[in-house]
Design a protein that fits this description.
Elements: H1 4-15, E1 18-21, H2 27-38, E2 43-47, H3 50-60, E3 69-71, H4 79-90, H5 96-102, H6 106-115, E4 121-124, H7 130-141, E5 151-158, E6 161-166, H8 176-192, E7 199-202, H9 213-228, E8 234-238, H10 240-244, H11 246-252, E9 264-266, H12 270-282, E10 287-294, E11 300-302, H13 309-335
Parallel strand pairs: 1-2, 1-4, 2-3, 4-11, 6-9, 7-8, 7-9
Antiparallel strand pairs: 5-6, 5-10
Length: 336
């Protein structure tokens, strides 16, 4: 286990949040839920066909403990209540017939459990595509008032090394203000792990060594970031080697506040970010956890469909950490 998670595990165990998994019949989800339950870290809520799900659990382990809840949308006595609540929330853009059909889908059913406060977090995507997690999240959970658009990041782990890559899953061609906001949200997320963010806005150019429309977007993003979020050390536009290797930083960007020690990498577009995290994972031997969503009103996280049960376990822990952060933020608001 990476050292990053030692403290997270204890914090999540103390909070003991309830997290819903919409793909409850997936064997990888069942294995992760079993481990999370026996370690008393999270109270899993598994969505699926009740008989089939219970049979799969028994085949893998034993009888389902009381601390693991199974929800079958087809037999749920509160289904109509959830349907009506969803329709009331979306009636300007959704018919009653659409609400009737959608609430029976595990992704929408699980998102309504979260929206109504019956669970603390949501982890899906083992079978669903990212768009099928994002759409109900945007419709029902919505973005925080201070956030223009949601974004995502990956935590990249290898031994004692931890990097944060953004945005690897959501925004296809972010403009300068989008990139600045993505960087700010990711830096805030980095602090959630008790790590001081050092932000690099990546490009094929370092501080004007090449110029194009693409580098201009990144250059402007850095200007906006420095103006609006002056809290963290930042450099850009900057090439990856100059952001991560001190000797190269001395040659390419000798006055950089990062000095080749960046840990938050903001990529110029989704192509670059998605390719980069997969190369880092598959060729570099890093564990890739994500995409972790940021900017929503409540903790919702997406999984890669190629994820393992271990990936789901760690994503649930990160979601639990987000639940703690949200609870603390709500307490702060109530005190004010």
């Amino acid at each position: 286990m990476n050292i990053l998670f030692s403290e997270i595990i204890e914090n999540v165990r103390n909070a003991y949040p309830t997290i819903v998994f919409p793909e409850g019949e997936d064997e990888r989800v069942l294995q992760a839920a079993y481990q999370l339950d026996i370690e008393k870290l999270i109270r899993p809520v598994l969505i699926g066909r009740e008989k089939e799900l219970i049979k799969k659990w028994k085949d893998l382990f034993s009888s389902i403990p009381e601390t693991v809840k199974v929800c079958d949308p087809q037999t749920c006595p509160q289904l109509n209540t959830y349907r009506d609540a969803m329709y009331d929330k979306r009636k300007s853009k959704m018919t009653k017939a659409e609400a009737e059909n959608l609430i029976q889908e595990p992704n929408y059913f699980g998102m309504m459990l979260l929206e109504r406060g019956e669970v603390n977090g949501f982890v899906g995507g083992a079978q669903y595509a990212t768009r099928d997690i994002l759409k109900p999240a945007m419709q029902l959970i919505k973005t925080k008032p201070s956030v223009k658009r949601i974004s995502s990041y990956f935590v990249m782990l290898k031994e004692k090394t931890v990097y944060f890559f953004a945005d690897c899953a959501v925004n296809v061609s972010p403009q300068s203000r989008d990139l600045a906001e993505i960087a700010n949200l990711t830096a805030c997320s980095t602090e959630m792990f008790n790590i001081n963010p050092r932000v690099a806005f990546l490009s094929y150019s370092t501080n004007g060594s090449a110029q194009s429309e693409e580098t201009a977007v990144v250059h402007e993003a850095v200007r906006i970031f420095k103006q609006n979020y002056p809290k963290w050390p930042v450099d850009g536009e900057i090439q990856f080697d100059a952001a991560i290797i001190p000797e190269i930083a001395q040659k390419k960007s000798p006055y950089s506040p990062l000095q080749g020690n960046a840990n938050v990498f903001v990529f110029p577009n989704l192509d670059a970010a998605n390719i980069a995290y997969k190369i880092t994972q598959r060729l570099g031997g890093f564990q890739a956890l994500g995409p972790i969503l940021q900017g929503l009103n409540k903790p919702v996280n997406d999984l890669s469909r190629g994820c393992s049960s271990t990936d789901i376990y760690y994503m649930a822990l990160i979601t639990g950490l987000q639940c703690i952060e949200q609870h603390q933020a709500e307490l702060g608001k109530s005190v004010q």
